TrEMBL record:
One of its GO terms (molecular function) is ATP binding. Pfam families: CN_hydrolase (PF00795), NAD_synthase (PF02540). The active site is at residues 43, 110, 146. This is Glutamine-dependent NAD(+) synthetase. It catalyses: deamido-NAD(+) + L-glutamine + ATP + H2O = L-glutamate + AMP + diphosphate + NAD(+) + H(+). NCBIfam families: nadE (TIGR00552), PRK13981.1 (NF010588). Deamido-NAD(+) binds at residues 371, 400, 510. Residues 4-242 form the CN hydrolase domain. It is an enzyme of class 6 (ligase). PANTHER family: GLUTAMINE-DEPENDENT NAD(+) SYNTHETASE, NH 3 /GLUTAMINE-DEPENDENT NAD + SYNTHETASE.
C-alpha cells in the first residue's frame, strides 16, 4: 500500500464571505495539490461558522452550490474534503463533501446537531442518519463533523468497518480548558473503536465566538502525536503508510502538563479583537484609558492585536482622578507607543450640571453625579468614533457586567468589549502574564486596589464583595446554576451571596444593551445565557428562604 499524504488546512473563514472563502480554498488547493493526495478544510468552510439566518436565504444556498462546483473542478490532482450546507428538496443538511475532478465522490451529513449554549443548529439543519466511509488509494477513511465525535453513536455506526483513519472537520469554539475536553472525547472514541483520528478545527474570531484551531492527530493507542498551534492559521501534513501515522510541519508538541492556560486565554482575546476589527472593516480602535487594570489590559490586547499605529488611548480625568492614574496611563501608552490624548471632562460635567441644576435642587448627591461623569466620557469617545471611524473598545470585565457595576450610555458605550467574559481575578492574572512577554502594564496598576474614581477615596470594595469571593459566587450562579442556598452552604457569607445574586438578576436589562464581546468561559452573557429581563423568580427564591 502506497503512502497517502493528507493536508490539514487550519484556516480562518469569514461568515458570509463566500467569494473570499472559496478563493482561499482554491488558492490552498492550487498550492498544495501537487504534494498531497487529500486536502481537508473545516466544518462549513465555504460559508464560515455559524452562518445563522443566512442559511434561510435561497440566494445564499445558490452561491454555496456554485462554490462547491468551482472547488470540485479545481480538485484535479487531489481530493478535497470541505464542509458546507447542502439542500436536498426542502431539507438543509450540514455536510462534508469529498470532491475530485468535477464530481462529488461522497457526501456525509452531520448526525448530531448541537442546540445548547451558543449553538442552534436544529433551527436550520436536519440530522443525517448514516455513517460514510471514503476509500482512496486503498485507505478507508471515516468522516465525522464536530459534534458527532462528542457522542458514541455516529462512530459506532462505522465500528464494523476496518478504518485506517477518522477525519473530523470542526468549528469548535474556544473556552477555557476546552482543549482538555476535546482530548478526553477523542481518547474515549479511540478507546471504543481503535481508530486513529485527525481532528481539524476552524481558526478565527466570529462575533462572540473564538475558534482556536488547535487541531490534532491521535493514534490507535490514544496517544496525541501532533497538534497545531493555538489561535494561528497554518497548514500541516499527515501521512499514512500502512498502519503508521506520521505528522509533518507540525510544531514540536508542548506536552499536556505545560501550563499554557493564561497564554491560551490571552492569545484567544487577541485573535478575537483582530478578527472583529478587521472583518468589520475598521481601520483603528480607541478606548478610554483610566489608569486602572481593566483598561490597561484592554489596551495591551488591542495593541497586540492590531499594532500600536491603529490604537488610540484617551485619558479623560476628573477632579477625583488621582495623579497615580494619570502617571500610569501615560506610562503605559508611551511603552506601547500608541496615540495618547488627555481630555479633561470637568467642563462637560459642569455644563450638564448647570442645565440639570433646577431639576436636582433639594436632592442629595448620589450615583447620578457619578454616572454623569461616566456618560461624559462615553459621549466624548463616541464623538471621536463618529468623526474618525475608529471602533470604541469598552473595558468592562465579566464581574462588573454581572452585577451591573457599569454605567449604561457611559463606560458601556462602544462597539466591542474584549474582556466582557473575563472575571476580575482573571484580569489581574492576564495583566501579570502579559508583562512576562514584555512589561507594558505598570506594576502599580496591578497592585493598587481597584477603583472607578467617581467619588473621593472610592474603591470597588465599598460597593462589592472582595473579587476573589465575588468571582466564585458568580461562577456558581451564572455558569453552574447553583441556587442561593447551595452557594451559601459552600461557605460564602449569606449577605454577600444574596446581594450579588440580586444584582445579577436586576441588571439583565443593562447586559442586553452592552457591546458584544468574546466568549472564553463555560457560559457567557450573550448567546450562552438567555434570561428574561422581566422576571420575578428572585422573589420566589426569597419566599422559599
Amino acid at each position: 500500500m502506497s503512502e497517502l499524504s493528507l493536508c490539514m488546512a487550519q484556516l480562518d473563514f469569514t461568515v458570509g464571505a463566500l467569494h473570499n472563502n472559496t478563493s482561499l480554498i482554491l488558492k490552498t488547493v492550487a498550492e498544495q495539490s501537487h504534494e498531497h493526495d487529500i486536502i481537508v478544510f473545516p466544518e462549513l468552510a465555504i460559508t464560515g461558522y455559524p452562518p445563522e439566518d443566512l442559511l434561510l436565504r435561497p440566494d445564499h444556498q445558490e452561491a454555496v452550490d456554485n462554490a462547491v462546483e468551482q472547488i470540485s473542478a479545481a480538485a484535479s490532482d487531489c481530493v478535497v474534503i470541505v464542509g458546507h450546507p447542502s439542500k436536498v428538496g426542502e431539507q438543509l443538511f450540514n455536510v462534508v463533501s469529498v470532491l475530485h475532478r468535477g464530481e462529488c465522490l461522497l457526501r456525509y451529513k452531520k448526525q448530531r446537531l448541537p442546540n445548547t449554549g451558543v449553538f442552534d443548529e436544529q433551527r436550520y439543519f436536519v440530522p443525517g442518519d448514516e455513517g460514510q466511509v471514503f476509500e482512496w488509494q486503498g485507505y478507508r477513511i471515516g468522516l465525522m463533523i464536530c459534534e458527532d465525535l462528542w457522542h458514541p453513536e455516529p462512530l459506532s455506526r462505522l465500528a464494523d468497518d476496518q478504518l485506517d483513519l477518522v477525519v473530523s472537520v470542526n468549528a469548535s469554539p474556544y473556552e477555557i480548558d476546552k482543549h482538555d475536553q476535546r482530548l478526553s472525547v477523542l481518547r474515549q472514541r479511540v478507546a471504543e473503536h481503535g481508530f486513529p483520528i485527525a481532528y481539524l478545527n476552524n481558526c478565527g474570531g466570529q462575533d462572540e465566538l473564538i475558534f482556536d484551531g488547535h487541531s490534532m492527530v491521535m493514534d490507535r493507542e490514544g496517544r496525541l502525536i501532533g497538534e497545531l498551534p493555538h489561535c494561528e492559521t497554518t497548514l500541516a501534513t499527515l501521512k499514512l503508510a500502512g498502519s503508521q501515522l506520521k505528522c509533518e510541519a507540525f510544531p514540536p508538541y508542548a506536552g499536556e502538563d505545560t501550563d499554557l492556560r493564561l497564554a491560551h486565554v490571552y492569545d484567544a482575546l487577541v485573535l478575537s479583537v483582530r478578527d472583529y476589527v478587521n472583518k468589520n472593516g475598521f481601520k483603528n480602535v480607541l478606548l478610554g484609558l483610566s489608569g486602572g487594570i481593566d483598561s490597561a489590559l484592554t489596551l495591551a490586547i488591542a495593541a497586540d492585536a492590531l499594532g500600536a499605529d491603529r490604537v488610540q488611548a484617551v485619558m479623560m480625568p476628573f477632579k477625583y482622578t488621582s495623579n497615580m492614574s494619570l502617571e500610569d496611563a501615560e506610562q503605559q501608552a508611551k511603552t506601547l507607543n500608541v496615540k495618547y490624548d488627555v481630555v479633561p471632562i470637568e467642563p462637560m460635567f459642569d455644563a450638564f450640571m448647570g442645565q440639570l441644576g433646577p431639576f436636582f435642587e433639594g436632592t442629595a448627591t448620589d450615583t447620578t453625579e457619578e454616572n454623569l461623569q461616566s456618560r461624559c466620557r462615553g459621549v466624548l469617545l463616541m464623538a471621536l468614533s463618529n468623526k474618525t471611524g475608529a471602533l470604541v473598545l469598552t473595558t468592562g470585565n465579566k464581574s462588573e457586567v454581572a452585577v451591573g457595576y457599569a454605567t449604561l450610555y457611559g463606560d458601556m458605550c462602544g462597539g466591542f468589549a474584549p474582556i466582557k467574559d473575563v472575571p476580575k481575578t482573571l484580569v489581574y492574572q492576564l495583566a501579570s502574564y502579559r508583562n512576562t512577554r514584555s512589561e507594558c502594564i505598570p506594576e502599580r496598576v496591578i497592585e493598587r486596589p481597584p477603583s472607578a474614581e467617581l467619588a473621593p477615596d472610592q474603591v470597588d470594595s465599598d460597593s462589592l464583595p472582595d473579587y476573589s469571593d465575588l468571582d466564585r459566587i458568580l461562577s456558581l450562579y451564572v455558569e453552574q446554576d447553583w441556587s442561593p442556598s447551595e452557594i451559601i452552604a459552600a461557605g460564602f457569607e449569606d449577605a454577600d451571596v444574596r446581594r450579588a445574586l440580586k444584582l445579577v438578576d436586576i441588571n439583565e436589562y443593562k447586559r442586553r444593551q452592552a457591546a458584544v464581546g468574546p466568549k472564553i468561559t463555560a457560559r457567557n452573557f450573550g448567546r450562552d445565557r438567555r434570561y428574561p429581563i422581566t422576571s420575578h423568580y428572585r422573589y420566589e427564591l426569597e419566599r422559599q428562604n
